[in-house]
Amino acid sequence: MRRGILRSARPVFHFPYALTLLMLLALSGCSLFRPAPPPEPEAPVATEPEPAASEPEAASAPEVASEPEAESTAKPAPKKPRPAPVRRRRPPPPPPAPASAPPAPPPAPIVQVRTLERGTFRTLLDSEVQKTDGKVVGRAVDMVTGPGGKPVDVVVNLQGFMGVGDRKANFPWSGVRVNTQPKTPAITLALPANQLQVPDRPKAGAPQPGNPEASATRLPMLDADVERANGAKVGRVVDVLLDGSAAPQAVVLDVSGTLEKRHTIAADWSALRFVTKNNTLEAQLEMSDQQVDASPPYAPDQPVHAVTPAAPPPAAPAAQAAPAASPVASAANAHGAK
Fold first, then answer.
1. Over the stretch 172-191, which tens digit does the pLDDT of each residue have?
2. Is 205 a member of any domain?
3. CA-to-CA distance for 338 and 336, rounded, in angstroms?
4. Rg for the chain (alpha carbons), in Å?
5. 3-class DSSP assignment, residue 311
6. Domain count of the fold of the chain
7. Is the pLDDT of residue 2 over 50?
8. Is there a domain that residue 181 lies in?
9. 219-235, pLDDT tens digit by residue?
């Protein structure tokens, strides 16, 4: 028994396994005793080239010494509360501008003007007078009117020989024809032969025919004074304008004063009134000094502006009666009376 137990206690090694174990131990022992590898050389450090010397910088201004900071241990000042933002109210829009009153109408003209174009009339004074056969017998020097301003006669200065023996003669206005074309005889006497007889030359000292004086029924227009109804003088007639039907259209008045430069205007024939005053026929024109000054001047070579005094503006209506008192006012008055 004992021999059997000892045999069982002996280790049992197999040869192939033992050889493998020895080889592993030998390899591990070689790695333990191998010398350490040499240290690796350090990589060279690249050195940057030194920069070239630059110009010396300008000395900066010395810094202002700042106030010493408060100690960190000091307590911070309490923050002030921010005021609430104030909202500004928008201003109310401006009230609409009151409607401007309409401009006042221009003042009414104090004279009315009627334009007479050249070529539609001829002047009377110094116009050539011819017969129907074209023979010139003289020049017109005056026109005689009757009541109402109707022409009655034309006064012609008959030509003599070389200016000797000139004399004046009256011819009925019914035979007067007016030619409005310029540079032609203005007046043609279309009268029968018995009315074209030239009067004989007056004897020395005898009154000159053809110079009629004003009477109650006849008024020579040239050099006649035109006055207002109150007797104030307006001007003196220096010419008469005739249309193609031999109807007077206007009179040329000299309205200049004694010391003023000559000023002439054309007054419309319809504005004249012919009245008998002191047994003499007169021509009147109700024209104030302001209206005379407002009248355009007369020019022989321009269109004529014949003026007529403008009618006065209508009188303003009478003020209306005061409105009746209100019932409250009437009651108050009645209470006061009590």
1. 999 999 999 988 999 999 98
2. no
3. 5
4. 68
5. coil
6. 1
7. no
8. yes
9. 999 999 999 999 999 99
